Amino acid sequence: MSSHSTTTAFGTAQVKRARYAIAAVFTVHGAVTGSFATRVPWIQDHAGVSAGQLGLALAFPAIGASLSMPLAGRISHRFGARNALRGLLALWTLALILPSLAPNLLTLCAGLFVYGASAGMSDVAMNALGVEVENRLDRSIMSSLHGMWSAGALIGSAAGTVAAHVGADARLHHLLAALTLTVLGLIACQGVLDLRSEADEEPPPRFTLPPKSALVIGAIGFCAVFAEGASMDWSAVYLRDVVDTSAGLAAASTTAFALTMTVARLAGDRIVDRFGAVRAVRAGGALATLGGALVVFSPGAPGVLCGFGLIGLGVAVVVPLAFAAAGRSGPNPSQAIAGVATITYTSGLVAPSAIGSLAEATSLVVSFGLVTVLAFGLVLGAGVLRGADRKVADSVTAPGGVVAKSPSEG
Fold it and tell me: CA 271, CA 321: separation in Å to the nearest integer?
């Protein structure tokens, strides 16, 4: 939505309800991802694709998301924020069905492209509404919203693990999950803010390059997501191959990392409110840098596990704050958020393969040396997220009862 839409007045109770509603939307969105991830081995077998072909297919969600994200702002302009989110979230939850139906590589790539495109558009729409709610509440909520997304992913993956354990057909599992999550998503969308563009407002372009502000903010998001993706996908391999731990301990590191991220995001808003976005990210970058150094230089499993935990703690709040900063960086929040989201999605796509390629050419230790350098980039570049701190008008009381006050008023 554009800046013209932000003048709409909502009552205090309505805004508070919208906060819980958008949190539920984030949870549903994350649950789709978790549901899909646990059944990838089944999908691979059903489609009859090799590991290399699966790697190719798994690039298509990011491609679809990157190409579709700029459309989210135009859809919100046309139909209003609530209706747009309702439709895009339903498209995303129902798209969960497609990959498990694919009988071959071509249809798998096509299904994953649609899956990624719907994920990206709904992602932009819900983050834009999250920023709007944060502005009206005059306190940080973006970190906890992303924490709810992580919690949803954990719930979806837990259900998927059970389904896989009992040998359930992924087509039936994903059909039931998609229908359930679609209903829950539609219910959650009833409570989000119904923002609408002014009648004389120009619609945003269908496709456009991200604004310069989004590129700068996105660079910080890139560093954080690269460290997150590398740790999530390679921590177990690192412990097994470099530290020579048991397979069980190696596998547990991934779950521990995901839990660390979730807890840190759920608690992150209080830290941001107390210290501000820049100091929170700078401190987080320092923690992640220390964690990377422990991974690289620790001789045993305890130090490496502690290192991955510190990386998770350090990068947890960066992406939520990048979205918040993008949403306040110009006249078209959806366009800026789409730009930042595209960069972070690209980072998530590049990180696992980049770590693998560098490890093949050198070693995994060197690869996580790169992660450590990028984590230190958060310390150096945290200042670009200054816009993530809430900005409110001076002594303005909206007709609906929401009072905008300066931070010094408490």
Answer: 12
Torsion angle defined by CA atoms of residues 120, 125, 126 and 129, in that order, rounded to the nearest 10 degrees: 160
Q: Is 397 helix (H, G, I), strand (E, B) or coil?
A: strand
Beta bridge partners of 403: 397
Contact 355, 367 (CB under 8 A): yes
Distances (CA, A) of 392 to 91, 289, 322, 384, 406: 34, 33, 18, 19, 6
Q: Which residues contact 277 (CB under 8 A, 6 or more apart)?
A: 321, 324, 325, 382, 385, 386, 388, 389
Residue 403, helix vs strand vs coil: strand
Dihedral of the CA atoms 145, 150, 151, 156 (nearest 10)? 130
3 state DSSP class of 391: coil
Strand-pairing partners, residue 404, are 396
What three-state secondary structure class fits 396?
strand
- Provide the 8-state DSSP code for 407: G
Residue 26's closest CA among 133, 116, 142? 142
Q: How far is CA 253 from CA 224, 231, 257, 301, 335, in A?
A: 19, 9, 6, 10, 36
| Residue found by looking up tokens 């069905």 in the block | 97
Angle 223-229-232 from CA coordinates, rounded to 5°: 135
Phi and psi for 204 in degrees, rounded to 5?
-65, 155
Distance CA 143, CA 31 (A): 17
Residue pair 42/170 in contact (Cβ under 8 Å)? The answer is yes
- The residue behind tokens 């290399």 is 52
Give me the tens of pLDDT residue by residue for the chain, a chain 410 residues long. 444 444 456 778 889 999 999 999 999 999 998 899 888 889 999 999 987 788 788 888 888 988 888 888 889 888 989 999 999 999 999 999 999 999 999 999 999 999 999 999 999 899 989 988 988 888 889 999 999 998 998 899 888 888 888 889 999 999 999 999 999 999 999 999 988 766 556 666 555 566 677 888 999 999 999 998 888 878 888 888 899 888 778 877 777 787 888 889 999 999 998 999 999 999 999 999 999 999 999 989 999 999 998 999 999 999 999 988 888 776 667 778 888 888 887 887 778 778 888 888 899 999 999 999 999 999 999 998 886 665 433 333 333 333 333 222 33
User: Which H helix or E strand runs over 55?
Assistant: helix 51-57
CA-to-CA dists, residue 250 to 21, 164, 246, 304, 366, angstroms: 37, 20, 6, 11, 19
